[in-house]
């Protein structure tokens, strides 16, 4: 749990129209109709082969903390956002419904019913914004991170993007990156809040602060030991590598290169380190890396990647296009559900009905289709259903350690067809088949 | 002040390497050298004509709340991030230095010294990440927002992007958008925290919940009055407009169109509303708008724009490339400052020295150059200096109402050459001239 994001009311992380809809529905009586909302996306970012669900754990905290404080209610009243009867409803608000969804770390495709929220219209409609904020942000980061860790193969990726993202968004980004295979983060709050391993040693400022590079390296090694990582591109790279090994000895942990032609420089530095007897000193590269740059460095003697801007901005796609749509509702609080869907000519149509989803494997166990249905589940698909219960009768039941999501992502990605991890643009690697009853 | 972002310690919103540098510098004795760090950017996003400083107010809160709690210190010790002497330093940490910078809402260019942080190396180096997080995020949003409000002219822009951004990032985004001329936000937390006007009435779910569109419109008008905005594209647009005016009468406040060819539909709906006698009913459009779509709608009968995804993701540029670099330091706690700068071959070089900045106007008062210097200020430029004091001797002195930043942005943008607000790609509208002593 996080002092910044989880110990506090999430109730105002809400678009105003949710509360005005609530008020109008309380008046019309429709607020108590049993309703099913679905989170899905109509498309993946252009050219991407798969999406990655992330944020689920944070989302469960957000639902649990969705309670209005007295000060918030006073403000809503003062501002005339809603009137007395609605304020009373909000004062007692507590989500009592059910949430099912794809578990965190799972992959998804256009039309995948990523999350299903069921309850009265009143209690479910006002969760829209916070649910989408969390899932759209975290899943965008995880999707980018997954491409990077896939491109990096066995070499570790370290998340270093905090400075290029909103300060709380950065913490969530580190979490999403960890789920998608990153091994560590520079962000201490992410370590503190989520137990993600943290990493980092020194910046150029540290070298510039001292009277010489040698003074700086000496200070760093004295403080952090010979296993530290020395940053070698403040002045002359070859001289810095020589100084680094002189100061730390051949058991120096690593050097970091943060600028220039990284392929060329990695080869040059590797040769120099080997000549100096520092065969085990690793080479870490940073400097505006993305999945393409990581892939391009595959043949270079690099031992780890530090990734910043590109990770926290979703490598060109900083958000997902997930939406939260009413897909079914009863005409009484307990009546049978009726499918509903927008059907204007504008193109933003959706498929009504409460849905299940399964990932159908072929004979070799490789995923071959995402099957989404509104009727009974075909027997052959029953073992491959994707939804898990997350909230039951208002109680969070879907919490799990972050490592479980991390392991799940690894498995889910590995079960996709090989073309899933191609970096070139293409269609989603699985087609979504719709079975309507 | 905001329960989520401001009442809490910001001290761990920090990259680990800042604390390890601190420890090593405490050991070498260099930690107490007087130091000057500068925030600047080497480039604007590709094709952009100007940048917009935003986040300053949040930044001042972050500096003020940069205090380590006992639990945080215990964790840092347990994790071996730093050792006892450093933990002691952190336990007593409080920034005692000075911060000057471009005031919030001001525009900036490559090389503009956006923020200058001066103090001991120790106290200044550990603010790097949180300062950059806030400025890089908020300024990216403000830059996009400024292009949108410029394209919209006198028509209001409403920020509706919360669902597509990290939930706390969204609150900051609403704030940045307001500074850059947006008139309202959908995000209640942004209203609660920053006093930004909020807006919103209903989504498609509200129509789908009811047994008919007429039932839904009736419920909404009964709850919110005839001045409300009815969403008219759930089923058939023309029928919805007819029903809307029947239900609310000709004094209906507005209709909202959220899909389809907005130019075409706006003309069609305007004609229909006028025929129905609802000449004053406004037309609000939403649906993946960005500055280009807004500009394209200039000739359409539209009365307001709701902007979501594109705003909160910086319209293609979700972060800025601002960096935090040591540009000068003394060799004693109080000695004279010596300029320092990275000078490797990698291209990421910077200009050393503590800087001033002025925007030089031409004879007509139109800005003609951004002048940045390290020596004495030429007399003619003295009235045009850009820096203001933000923190003096550790005390925040630069707080101001959000409306002051909003007014400043309007003035600053208006004083730029006309080509500043062209949407086509181009060079920064002002060149930065460097005067070194």
UniProtKB/TrEMBL annotation, chains A, B:
InterPro entries given in the database record: Aldolase_TIM, NAPRTase_N, Nic_PRibTrfase-Fam, Nic_PRibTrfase_pncB, Nicotinate_pribotase-like_C
Pathway the protein acts in: Cofactor biosynthesis; NAD(+) biosynthesis; nicotinate D-ribonucleotide from nicotinate: step 1/1
Coiled coil: none
Residues in Nicotinate phosphoribosyltransferase N-terminal domain copies: 12-136
Reactions catalysed, as given in the entry: 5-phospho-alpha-D-ribose 1-diphosphate + nicotinate + ATP + H2O = nicotinate beta-D-ribonucleotide + ADP + phosphate + diphosphate
Source domain of life: Bacteria
Alphabetically ordered keywords of this record: Glycosyltransferase, Ligase, Phosphoprotein, Pyridine nucleotide biosynthesis, Transferase
Protein name per its UniProtKB record: Nicotinate phosphoribosyltransferase
């Amino acid at each position: 749990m996080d002092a910044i994001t989880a110990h506090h009311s999430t109730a105002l992380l809400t678009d105003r129209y949710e509360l005005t809809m609530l008020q109008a529905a309380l008046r019309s009586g429709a607020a108590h109709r049993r309703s099913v909302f679905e989170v899905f996306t109509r498309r993946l970012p252009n050219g991407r082969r798969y999406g990655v669900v992330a944020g689920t754990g944070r989302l469960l905290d957000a639902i649990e903390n969705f309670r209005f404080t007295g000060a918030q209610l006073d403000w809503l009243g003062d501002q005339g956002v809603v009137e007395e009867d609605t304020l009373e409803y909000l004062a007692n608000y507590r989500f009592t419904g059910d949430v099912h969804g794809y578990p965190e770390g799972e992959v998804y495709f256009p039309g995948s019913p990523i999350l299903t929220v069921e309850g009265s219209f009143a209690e479910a409609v006002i969760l829209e914004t916070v649910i989408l904020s969390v899932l759209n942000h975290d899943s965008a980061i995880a999707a980018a991170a997954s491409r990077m860790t896939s491109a990096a193969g066995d070499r570790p990726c370290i998340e270093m993007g905090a400075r290029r993202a909103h300060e709380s968004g950065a913490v969530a980004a580190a979490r999403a990156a960890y789920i998608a295979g990153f091994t560590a983060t520079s962000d201490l709050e992410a370590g503190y809040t989520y137990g993600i391993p943290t990493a980092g040693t020194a910046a150029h400022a540290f070298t510039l602060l001292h009277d010489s590079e040698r003074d700086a390296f000496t200070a760093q090694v004295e403080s952090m030991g010979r296993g530290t990582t020395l940053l070698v591109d403040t002045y002359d790279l070859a001289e810095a590598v020589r100084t680094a090994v002189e100061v730390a000895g051949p058991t120096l942990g690593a050097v970091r290169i943060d600028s220039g032609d990284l392929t060329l420089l990695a080869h040059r530095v590797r040769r120099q380190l080997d000549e100096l007897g520092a065969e085990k000193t690793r080479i870490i590269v940073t400097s505006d890396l993305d999945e393409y740059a990581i892939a391009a460095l595959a043949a270079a003697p690099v031992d780890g990647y530090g990734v910043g801007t590109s990770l926290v901005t979703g490598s060109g796609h900083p958000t997902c296009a997930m939406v939260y749509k009413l897909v079914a509702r009863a005409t009484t609080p307990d009546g049978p559900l009726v499918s509903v869907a927008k059907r204007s000519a504008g193109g933003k149509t959706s498929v009504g009905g409460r849905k299940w989803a399964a990932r159908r494997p072929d004979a070799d166990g490789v995923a071959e289709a995402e099957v989404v249905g509104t009727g009974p589940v075909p027997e052959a698909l029953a073992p491959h259903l994707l939804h898990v219960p997350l909230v039951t009768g208002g109680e969070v039941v879907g919490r799990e350690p972050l490592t479980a999501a991390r392991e799940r992502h690894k498995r889910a990605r590995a079960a996709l067809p090989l073309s899933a991890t191609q970096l070139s643009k293409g269609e989603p690697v699985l087609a979504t088949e719709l079975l309507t009853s």
